[in-house]
């Protein structure tokens, strides 16, 4: 039985395919391949001219010529048109109660909150007809004949 020597780890092994098998395992074969690839990437080409050694770096990969790195008027127009269409569709298909609050909505809400008296709708009117209101400063129910207290 003849032993072979692995070309990556230099261990002796019994080949399963004589004359074809060079590595002891698939992992050694894979590691050898990756080692060759990285060595090629790091290697600089050397050429000789008139007994002088000149080192030339490898050619860089070709750049993508379809890539536009400048801003064009057409691109700005397309993005503006896309934004307008998207905003219009969003406003058309979003129900009113799901839309975001505006400054006007927040001002109306702030005016309602800062009022001192708030009407209480789930209490009955008093026998003389006065309406119930909740006083935010005293935290009490107050009855008044005026329809809107502030």
Task: Provide keyphrases for this structure.
150 residues, alpha+beta, two-stranded antiparallel ribbon
**Approximately how much beta-strand content do the residues carry?**
15-25%
Number of helices: 3
Total DSSP E strands: 7
- End-to-end distance: 106 Å
Shape: elongated
Query: Order of SSEs, N→C?
Result: EEHEEHHEEE
Largest sheet composition: 3 strands, antiparallel
Q: Provide the low-confidence segments as ranges.
A: none
What's the rounded overall pLDDT mean? Answer: 81
Order of strands across the main sheet: 5-6-7
Description:
The chain is built from three helices and seven strands; from the N terminus they run E-E-H-E-E-H-H-E-E-E. It is α+β, with helices and mostly antiparallel strands and 150 residues long. The chain has a three-stranded antiparallel β-sheet with strand order 5-6-7, with no helix packed on it. It is elongated, with a radius of gyration of 42 Å. It starts with a strand and ends in a 6-residue tail after the last strand.
Summarize the helices and strands and which ones pair or pack.
Layout: E1 4-5, E2 12-13, H1 26-42, E3 45-49, E4 52-56, H2 73-93, H3 103-114, E5 117-119, E6 131-135, E7 140-144
Antiparallel strand pairs: 1-2, 3-4, 5-6, 6-7
